[in-house]
Amino acid sequence: MFGKRITLFKLFGFEVRLDASWLIIAILVTWSLAAGVFPYLYPGLNRETYWTMAVVGALGLFISIVVHEFSHSLVARRFGMSMKGITLFIFGGVAEMGDEPPTAKAEFLMAIAGPVASLMIAAIFFLIYRLGEQVGWQAPVNAVIYYIASINGILAAFNLLPAFPLDGGRVLRAILWGYKGDLRWATRVSSTVGAAFGLGLIFVGILQFVGGNLIGGMWLALIGMFLRNAAQTSYQQLLVRKALEGELVRRFMVTDPITVPPQLTVRQLVEDYILTHQHRLYPVLDGDRLLGCVTTRQVREIPREDWDQRTVRDVLLPVSSANSIPPTMDAVQALATMNQSGFTRLLVVENGRLVGLLTLKDLLNFFSLKVELT
Q: How much is the pTM?
């Protein structure tokens, strides 16, 4: 889902990251507030005032989304769910879960926490707005306060739509899950509803676009496409988890992986291994001792003119929790490690020794066969 991400800060143990795509929405929101919304609602102010109001309003939106996602994360942690952090991207924000909720109750409370937080913010800022009206605060101040109240109300209402994976869709899944006790069935039904909502938004967006509302129609269609794709992907991810659940890494690992010695030059690594075997990661062994691994990422950072002088030892990555797993780990956890680290191949290490290599391709082949049989 995400591209280049920047870590902004860490709060309550959760990292808040900003996807580069969020800058697009930040610029669009600021511009639309400064050039359209505030001048229309509050005419007669100077240009600098409108832009100041717009920047503060966009900052309020940013903080509102962070609070919304933090609410999800705090409730999830209370139920023992692992959270990777919070990422803001072009369509808002997402609290990244490492696994599915343990129970329907946990799912319901985690899903409803975000909209409840947004409604509370909306109510608080609306009361402040009314207070400002009574005591005679300046129009620009009240305008921004009213915008923050309104945008949080809209944020809560949109997220409560019963379209998985929106919060309302997760609430629907929790109700269906609690009713029938079948997470897979509940996810399939709620994902179907989410995909249908996405298709509906695409259709409305096209009508808006043809009717002359070019920007509004385009955004509705894009949100619809995102929602439809996210709903279908969420169900597929659940199927993968269920297929791999309970299976150990030992079952899938390659026990005789291709390894490279540390004294190999980068040019030899590229010509004799990467281009020949076409793998992106190779374990580095000095005799029987595992030193780490080398990937195409490290090679990319070395200038070509230095390939003959630099060796694998100079560029290897030491063994860490990001690139290695034990053979007794559950395959679902291994898949989560791949997702978090970005590696599609992981070293399988036992008592400091390399015992195999796990690849994403092998996990997906197993999943494909299991689905075909069932």
A: 0.71
